[in-house]
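User: quick one, fold this
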Amino acid sequence: MRMFFRYIICFVALPVGISAFAENYTPVIREQHKIIVDGVEENWRLEWVGPTKPACGPEDPNWMTCPCTGFAFGERGNLELVRSRPGEKEERMAIAPLFEYGDDHPAGDQEAALLRWDIHKKDFTDSDAPDFPSRVRARPVAKVMNFGDYDHDGRATEFILQIGTLPCGKRMSVVVGISRRKPLLHAFSTVEHPEKPLVLRVPHWESLLQAKGPIRVIDWLCGDHASETETELELRAEAGRIHVKKRDYTCLEKGQPKQLIKEEVR
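Assistant:
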């Protein structure tokens, strides 16, 4: 497990290509769905290309710690998003490079990590039971690809993918899929910074999905891990274009309004 302390809120289209592992291993389908894109049925799959290892597994006592939030009970390895469309060449997008933009995740170098089994409330009290790992592994495989129209271009052809955590247990994620502006598989970015993926907390992506116009969300509260500032994000998505503004404010003092320190376009 690696820990980083950089903070990134931006977005990029990553190259789509066939992993070198694909020549040596038969891919294992982790999850697949059929979706309709412009009237044509497509097959989208998450595939493990090569062997996997546990990530925050049920036998690991650290599964309930902050860095494992969203990844327990999971697995890690070489993961690809695959898109098959009638009459077109199959597309493959390597997922591991996205984890370079994530902080504090259980994936190793050139690996991705993905939830496999959901956590139940009783797990926090039952985890010492001898048969706990086997009980977890007997559960249905968790659904990961929940499609939505996050860029508001009129098509639900993208889904949230967690790539890291921030203290404590803040699930940092990107959105991957296709858009009208970019019809190939990619990670979504802001219009102002297309060179990097837009990394947001999962609840912030969900709020953007439901938004009817610009919204403001608190990204970091005053006092959270001794923070001396409050960070706010203004999120806006319309016609396939995503915009983000980040504002830092002074913490509220008795009888004093908060003051804007800095504003950045992300």
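User: anything notable?
Assistant: The chain has three helices and 16 strands.
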